[in-house]
Design goal:
- By secondary structure, this protein is an alpha/beta fold.
- It folds into two domains: 145 residues, 3-Layer(aba) Sandwich (Rossmann fold); 193 residues, Rossmann fold (3-Layer(aba) Sandwich), CATH 3.40.50.2000.
- The strands form two sheets. A six-stranded parallel β-sheet has the order 3-2-1-4-5-6, sandwiched between helices. A six-stranded parallel β-sheet has the order 9-8-7-10-11-12, sandwiched between helices.
Length: 371
């Protein structure tokens, strides 16, 4: 059925709530304002979050959650067993923020009396209440798109100032990062710039030589700077190329300013961002992890637009967006580059990103109260 009378009216005072958001890191980050809103609405409720392993660190320390269930991708029999386990927990309401085939199935298998999801062809019958999701691109932030499920049950729309994305720094990860930096010769007095060079798909990857030129530009500007080049586990080779090229562009006396921090788990990447003066990266999961901090950010936007995926946090915090304007092919579905030359990214110059980085560093980190 479509949503009419609010399902909240039939919930007990302390409902058991299941939140489902599988797959991508950034999309899980984008649900964290909704998690906080559910906790505010149901202070006595029991909140469980179902997530896949890659993005689990984002919510594993979330203070608004009671339980985090990690569901590795597997065969259908494993999902049936997981659905049986969910049904045994007798959830009062399930919110499927994903809407994919697996998430829809698990929502249905939970047997919760209220199952809220998007109107999706072939799967809408798995929900008791459905929210329209127009096909195609919409000029709305992804946080607002996911929040449609909450508005449907009477929870008003969010603002980035009052409902920012959230990922707490894990204490053990912070200690590991401190040890790693000390081993690398990076001191507390150094100005750390984190450049993340990988992205979830090739349509969002700025060229390696551009990243190398950017790293060399920034490292050459001040002796106290350390430019740390990070990447996902599958793109460590990209980070190595960027580091080698950046060092080659610098005089021998400055090459130590470009640093390879090695492979960083998500929790340690989040802790590293807290030590940084600036984060630079494409529109990918690590950029949205950086958005959970107060650190200045420079985001590189190719086929995507900032209005959909800019850092969702207090606007007083510094965030620069660098993009190529005036392209008819942008935004795109990231399946085929119509012009064939990835011009949305290749026309972003290292000099433009360097200028944005210097502006962000000059603006500094705003001081806001965090819980």
């Amino acid at each position: 059925m479509a949503l009419g009378r609010s399902p909240l009216q039939s919930l007990p005072p302390a409902p058991r709530i299941l939140i489902i958001r599988l797959r991508e890191i950034g999309d899980v980050v984008f649900t964290t304002p909704a998690v906080a809103a559910l906790r505010r609405t149901f202070p006595r409720g029991h909140l469980t979050y179902l997530v896949e392993p890659l993005a689990a660190p984002i919510v594993s320390s979330n203070p608004n959650l009671d339980v985090v269930l990690v569901a590795p991708r597997g065969h259908a029999a494993a999902d049936i067993l997981l659905g049986w386990r969910l049904a045994k927990q007798r959830f009062d309401i399930v919110l499927d923020f994903h809407g994919g085939p697996r998430a829809s199935l698990l929502t249905w298998l939970s047997r919760a009396p209220i199952r809220i999801g998007y109107e999706v062809a072939g799967r809408s019958w798995m929900y008791t209440h459905r929210v329209p999701r127009p096909r195609g691109w919409r000029p709305r932030h992804a946080v607002r798109n996911q929040w449609d499920l909450l508005e449907a049950i009477g929870i008003p729309a969010p603002s980035p100032a009052t409902s920012p994305v959230e990922m707490r720094v894990d204490a053990a990860a912070a200690r590991a990062v401190a040890t790693r930096l000390e081993t690398l010769g990076v001191s507390a007095a150094d100005q750390i710039i984190v450049i993340h060079v990988s992205a979830g798909n090739p349509f969002r990857r700025w060229p390696r030589d551009a990243f190398a030129a950017l790293a060399a530009n920034l490292a050459s500007r001040a002796d106290g700077r350390r430019v740390l080049v990070t990447a996902g586990p599958s793109e460590r080779d990209a980070a190595a190329v960027v580091i080698d090229q950046a060092k080659a562009a610098l005089p021998p006396s400055s090459r130590h300013r470009v640093v390879d921090p090695g492979n960083l788990p998500l929790a340690e990447l989040r802790a590293l961002v807290d030590r940084a003066a600036l984060f630079i990266g494409g529109d990918s999961g690590p950029l949205h992890i950086a958005a959970t901090s107060t650190v200045p950010i420079v985001g590189l936007y190719g086929p995507t637009l900032p209005m959909r995926s800019a850092p969702w946090r207090d606007p007083v915090l510094t965030a620069e967006a660098v993009e190529t304007l005036g392209l008819d092919c942008r935004p795109c579905d990231q399946r085929v580059c119509a012009p064939g030359d990835f011009r949305c990214l290749t026309r972003i110059t290292p000099e433009a990103v360097t200028d944005a980085a210097e502006r962000a560093l000059a603006a500094g980190t705003a001081k806001i109260d965090r819980p």
